[in-house]
Amino acid sequence: MKMNIEKHSSKFIKPLVPTPPTLRYYKVSFIDELAPSLDIGAVLFFSENNNDHNTKFVTQLEQSLEKTLPRFYPLAGRYVNETYTVDCNDDGVEFIHAKCGGVALGVRTAHRIVDASTLCTFLSEWAVMNREEHVEITGPGFNTSSLFPGRCFPPGPLQAISDDDMSTKYIRKLYSFSESAISNMKAKANASMCDRHWSKVQLVSAVIWNALIGVDRANNNPRESILVQPVNLRGKTASLIPKHSCGNLCVFCATQAGVVETTEELANRLTNNVKETIHNFSKVDHNSEEGKLSVLNSISLPNIPESINLIMISSWCKFPFYEIDFGLGTPTWIAPWSMPMVNTTCLIDEARGNGVDAHVFLEVKDVPYFEEALRLQVGSFAA
């Protein structure tokens, strides 16, 4: 989706209530430390019918943001690399008012202290505040540093595509898998083998993974591959991590595949591996040193040789982004902003909830091969 955007104004919004001195320096967790030095965000699009009181609504957004920031105070601070801390100095967040021919609200922040769950929690609470409704405190706020204290690790090895390469060699493509397309794929698989209870996320992940394997074959470079999926830790450990905890709270689940695999084999492998990962962490006490080491080992990517294709697929499905209402009604469409890396995909529920939108970063030259491989598996998809 392309649109013309004209910047109208820009200002910094500070927390309405100053951050107390006792919270001035927020030490990040070791999961935060290992997060890539990249940004994360989302753009929420709303019906154009709700564009009647633009100036008043923008002012209301500014005021509600002021009221929301005290609970999310690290967002208004500045990260200090040398000390692995956020200086919560209340410098504020930049609020940009732009004209785009419709109604959209975008948020972008550092992945260093925010994951998809945190982003959704922040947007949800800001939206409730903007509707001037009573805000229930839904969780402990930023608490990852108390759960997994920092160890002064350098950022993870994942590197983003440069701006120059992104504008010439690479492209972000959207592929939409409808509920009916997913049901048809499941039915076709179940007709040929015993019943498989795949989630839509694992099935679509397997389809994309197999398409990327097909790209390697088309380029005369067949090779083994590893698919890495973040797994949300909230609510999954023996010692409970609250659902609305803020910060980076995930581990990696890595699954390997050979040169030739069927989509069904990949879906089975992904499903079994994720289930095993969740089962293993259901026995982990994150308060113990052993539990902390289990988490650390699961987010430390091994040295993967160049001969193996590294693929990453993150899922934002089931996070209630489509329930966020700033007083304009719920979004008509949501575009996640995630790290631009080769062969990286972000999955999110489609607007109706039962399909999947896949945002895939590809080399421009590989797009025809990728889409042909998708057609062979799915038959049809929206691109």
TrEMBL record:
GO molecular function: acyltransferase activity
Presence of keyword Hydrolase: no
InterPro entries per the UniProt record, alphabetical: CAT-like_dom_sf
Coiled coil (residue ranges): none
Keywords: Acyltransferase, Transferase
PANTHER family: F21J9.9, TRANSFERASE, CHLORAMPHENICOL ACETYLTRANSFERASE-LIKE DOMAIN PROTEIN
Assigned protein family: Belongs to the plant acyltransferase family.
Protein name as annotated: Putative transferase, Chloramphenicol acetyltransferase-like domain protein
